[in-house]
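Case study.
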Amino acid sequence: MAIGVKVMKRPGTKVSYVRATLQGMALTLQHLFRPKVTMQYPEEKSSQDWTLSPRWRGTHRMLTDEQGRAKCVACGLCPQICPANCIKLVPGEDEAGNRYPLIYEIDEFRCVFCGYCQEVCPEEAIHVGVHYENSEFSRDRFVYDLERLCAQTHPVSTLWDPSDPKGE
Amino acid sequence: MPEELVNLTIDGVPVSVSKGMLVIEAAKQAGVLVPHYCYHPGLPVAGVCRMCLVEIEKQPKLAISCATQVAEGMVVKTQSAAAKSARTGVLEFLLINHPLDCPICDQAGECELQDFTFQEGRAGTRYSPDYPKRFNPVEDFGPDVLYVPNRCILCTRCVRFMEDVAREPVLNVSERGDRAYIGVHPETRLDHPWAGNVVDLCPVGSLLSKDFLHKARAWELDKTASLCTGCSQGCNVTLDTRENVVVRVRPRPNLEVNRYFICDHGRMNYRWMNRGDRIEAPLVKRGGELHATDWQDALERVTTTLRGAGPRVVSLVSPRASTEALFFARELFRGLDWTGAFQVVMGEEAPLAGVPDLALRAERAPNGRGAELLGYGREYAAALAAAQSAAVVLVLDEPDIPVRAGTLIYVGTVLPERARDAEVVLPIANVAEEDGSFVNRDGRVQRYAQAKPAPGMARPAWWVFSELGAALGHGEPVGSAAEAFERVAQAIDALRGLSYEQLGFVGKPAAVPVAV
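After joint prediction, the assembly is written out as follows.
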């Protein structure tokens, strides 16, 4: 069967676009009086209708105990589970003889922000953060060491809760 | 005499086992591992943990399978509701005071309490969260052993090992009831030369090795069947490697040699396997200096040297070299006026009293017997003297470089200062980096496997010597250790008929018994 083609009938002469132009300008003008949806980003980071989700998975944060020491006990589960292999951990002992990470580094460039490290951590030490502003002037600054992870102050992710799948 | 067999049924699987066997061992033959803590095949039965309870038909109560002998027609149910709930109850009691500090415990991942709780323990505790668990500080037991009393489940394996196997009863169960802990004699330390075995025997992380403390997690380790190079006993060991670094040596059960144990000397004798100062490329002398080159060039240099040299040749070899390497090194000089010798480092002998014929031997030479079988002598001093006038001196991984007039060919893992005037230096793999075999002092031929890659261009010594032999016209080169061993077995009467396949990983006695 042949394909049927609909041929539009076009005006042959004397076509004016003034009407269409005015219609377009009227629509633009209408928008000036509608409520604004654009957020003024660097000055304004959240609004009443929009905030970052509490389940957001951003750059990491290491929580600390009352003495300000990292809660990490160097159990080795996060480097094991990490699918991007971005966590470097060398276990050792602190002054009191407790197991403690001698080196704990996360390469945030390599990280895929899956949040498995937070999920697997038995001490609730490492967390992914509700945070997205990470610019630096050099690449090597993206390897966060233990001190820097502990110094982060942004809120931490709640991750997805299977008993509350819709976050209600 | 035919062995008397007993027929019984375990979890519906009929098995025939020898008379007098324990139900727990018979269950292993039926493919069932009954959870247990105090039972260990290398120790006397104690029956204290009550973990291995099973139901036996026509018996009024549950029985502990580690202390019940098999009987004709017995029907054992390890998974019946009664047995399972009894074991779950035992686990619940054990966990009342167990600290659940698995994240910081070195045993996590190879912990029997962890495994069996996961398998059949309760999902949660019935104690309130603020119940104060028993707490005792960590104790220093001996040179390599730490005791963490909180994690202890009082299975008494360590106590029985020291009492019945080491025959040095320095451990006991002190106090009673829920205050009980493992005590060490106040005037002694746990410094028996075989004391390190209590760390392996401990089913939980209560007895820890200071050497391994915090070094690696169990799930990061790769395990390779190997042999201890500490002495001529030839204990079977497992090399635990993490990212190609040997981090731990553990005993590998072999009832004919070391049963379930190794001595502390062998346990600590692994650091040299990770040495960083290895020779990584073949070196040849050009203009008075050693220069790195490729294998082809280096091997050609050796063959021209050997072809042009006089007939007097001396080989000084290490008794840590594999049988295959020693054989091909010997074959190189077939038909020449050859002297071969190895040096044996002597140390103190340390027997394990409870196991006959098991000791840390004075001769620290894992393959001394193999070298002797292949025609190498023990007259090292005489060989050193003979080397002075020899045309070619071949040194295989031995730091003692003789004074000599002839050409030196040095084949080794590291380069000693005095080997720097060698004509050719060939890099070889060490025991953790190659497949090979040793012959122990009782003439038992045993295999070891490669645990990590060799550094740089280093190759197994048997490969190096078989390539050299092929270049000199002594047959084809070999491509694997198994093939190399086949050649040895063809040529050496004592090993005739043996092959890697037959040896397996527990070894076989040499066909012709060697006089000790």
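Observations recorded in class. Chain B has three domains: 5-93, 130-274, 283-509. The mean pLDDT of chain B is 93. We will return to this complex in the next lecture.
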